[in-house]
C-alpha cells in the first residue's frame, strides 16, 4: 500500500513538472540555468529585479520590445503566472562575478565616476540615482551590476532607435553621453 501511495505521489510530481516547464530548462539554453550565462549576447538574469523582468517579458510577448523573436517558443509555454514565476526564479539566483570586466583601470575609474556623479555640465545624471548605489536596480530600473558589456552596449544603442518605449528617460540620457562615456560605463558595470 505504502509503495503504491508513493508511486502515485511520484507520478503527480512528474505530471506537475510537465505542466509547468522549469525556467532553468526553458530559458537556460540562452541565459544559463542559474541566470549567469556566459554568452555576452544574452543578458544575465541572476539577481535581476523580478518586477522589471516580468514587465520586459510581457513587452516581448506583446511585440512591444523587439527581441528578434528570441522568446517566441519559450513564452508560448507560459501563461501570466508562469511568466511571473520565471521572473521570480531568476531574481532569486545569486549573481556570479563576471570575468569579462573591463581591463583598463582608467576607463573603469571613469565609468565609476559617471555612475556616481554623472556629468551635470552636459546633463548626464548619475546612474546610481535610478539604478541603485550598487547597480542593483529596483522595480523600474534594471540591475546593471555584473551585466555583460556586449548586451549593455546593444541596449544603449537601442535606446537611440526607440525600440524600447518604456525607456523614455534612458533615450534622453544616452543622447548626453559621448562615445568615451559609453566605453567607460561598459568597462565599469560588468565588474561592479
Ligand atoms: C533563444 C534564446 C533565449 C531564450 C530561450 C530566452 N531568452 Fe531571454 N533574452 C534573449 C535575448 C537575445 C535577449 C535580449 C533581447 C534584446 O536584445 O533586447 C533576452 C532578454 C531577456 C530579458 C530582458 C533582460 C533585460 O535586462 O532587459 C529577460 C527578462 C529575459 N530575456 C527572460 C527570459 C526568460 C524568463 C526566459 C525563459 C522563459 C528566456 N528569457 C528565454 C534570448 C533568450
Ligand atoms: C532617471 C532614471 C535613470 C537614470 C538616471 C539612469 N537610468 Fe538607465 N534605465 C532607467 C530605466 C527606467 C531603465 C529601464 C527602461 C525600460 O524599461 O526599457 C533603464 C535601463 C538601462 C539600461 C538597459 C539595461 C537592461 O538590462 O536592458 C542600461 C544599459 C542603462 N539603463 C544604463 C544607464 C547608465 C549607464 C546610466 C548613467 C549614465 C543610467 N542608465 C541612468 C532609468 C535610469
Automatic annotation (TrEMBL):
| PROSITE patterns hit by this protein | CYTC
Source species of the chain: Chromobacterium subtsugae
Q: Which InterPro entries match?
A: Cyt_c-like_dom, Cyt_c-like_dom_sf, Cytochrome_c4-like, Cytochrome_c_Oxidase_Subunit
Q: What keywords sit in the KW lines?
A: Electron transport, Heme, Iron, Metal-binding, Periplasm, Signal, Transport
**Where can this protein be found?**
Periplasm
Query: Where is the secretion signal located?
Result: 1-19
SUPFAM superfamilies recorded: Cytochrome c
The record's annotation in Pfam families points to: Cytochrom_C (PF00034)
Q: Cytochrome c domain location, by residue?
A: 1-94, 106-192
Coarsely, its chief localization is periplasm
> Does this UniProt record's set of keywords contain Transport?
yes
The keyword Ribonucleoprotein appears for this protein: no
Q: What name appears for this protein in its UniProt entry?
A: C-type cytochrome
Amino acid at each position: 500500500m505504502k509503495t503504491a501511495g508513493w508511486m502515485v505521489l511520484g507520478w503527480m510530481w512528474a505530471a506537475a513538472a510537465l505542466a509547468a516547464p522549469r525556467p532553468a530548462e526553458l530559458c537556460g539554453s540562452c541565459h544559463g540555468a542559474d541566470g549567469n550565462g556566459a554568452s555576452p549576447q544574452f543578458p544575465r538574469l541572476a539577481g535581476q529585479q523580478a518586477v522589471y523582468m516580468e514587465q520586459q517579458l510581457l513587452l516581448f510577448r506583446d511585440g512591444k520590445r523587439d527581441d528578434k523573436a528570441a522568446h517566441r517558443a519559450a513564452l508560448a509555454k507560459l501563461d501570466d503566472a508562469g511568466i511571473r514565476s520565471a521572473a521570480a526564479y531568476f531574481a532569486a539566483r545569486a549573481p556570479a562575478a563576471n570575468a569579462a570586466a573591463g581591463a583598463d583601470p582608467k576607463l573603469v575609474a571613469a565609468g565609476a565616476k559617471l555612475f556616481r556623479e554623472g556629468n551635470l555640465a552636459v546633463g548626464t545624471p548619475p546612474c546610481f540615482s535610478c539604478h541603485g548605489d550598487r547597480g542593483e536596480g529596483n522595480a523600474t530600473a534594471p540591475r546593471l551590476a555584473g551585466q555583460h558589456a556586449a548586451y549593455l552596449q546593444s541596449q544603449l544603442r537601442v535606446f537611440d532607435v526607440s525600440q524600447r518605449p518604456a525607456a523614455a528617460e534612458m533615450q534622453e540620457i544616452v543622447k548626453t553621453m559621448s562615445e568615451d562615456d559609453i566605453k567607460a560605463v561598459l568597462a565599469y558595470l560588468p565588474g561592479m
